Amino acid sequence: MKKAYRIKKEKEFQQIIENKQSFANRNFIVYVYESPENTHFRVGLSVGKKVGNAVTRNYVKRLIRTSLYDMKGMIQPNYNIVLIARPQVINLSLEEVKKNIVHVFKLANLMK
């Protein structure tokens, strides 16, 4: 994903999480913050150490980024999103990851 679609700063992560508008399923937690100044959505990824070692965590992040890239036309603009992966995500394929992200985004009303 392009840099314009990423959230990297700790301050921005905290602002979104403190908003306390969260949605979850078995594999992902999503925190949402509406930001009218954005012309597109922005996503911050968090994959904790419980998921596995660095190689595993980076693999999971690549799966999530690929899924989001494929779905970018369907996601509502003007939102900042923090997507947190739970440890069960290790066992999922790319299609299952995409399906779970679509499910949790529908719960959060982020899909067009």
Structure description:
This protein is α+β, with helices and mostly antiparallel strands and 112 residues long. The protein has one domain: Ribosomal Protein S5, domain 2 (2-Layer Sandwich). Helix content is 37%, strand content 21%. Helix 2 links the parallel strand 3 and strand 4. The longest helix is centred in the middle third of the chain and has 18 residues. The chain is globular, with a radius of gyration of 13 Å.
Question: How does the SSE layout of this entry go?
Answer:
Blueprint lengths: L9 H9 L3 E3 L3 E7 L7 E6 L6 H18 L7 E7 L8 H14 L5
Parallel strand pairs: 3-4
Antiparallel strand pairs: 1-2, 2-4
Helix pairs in contact: 2-3
In short:
The chain is an alpha+beta fold and 112 residues long. The protein has helices at 10-18, 54-71, 94-107; strands at 22-24, 28-34, 42-47, 79-85.
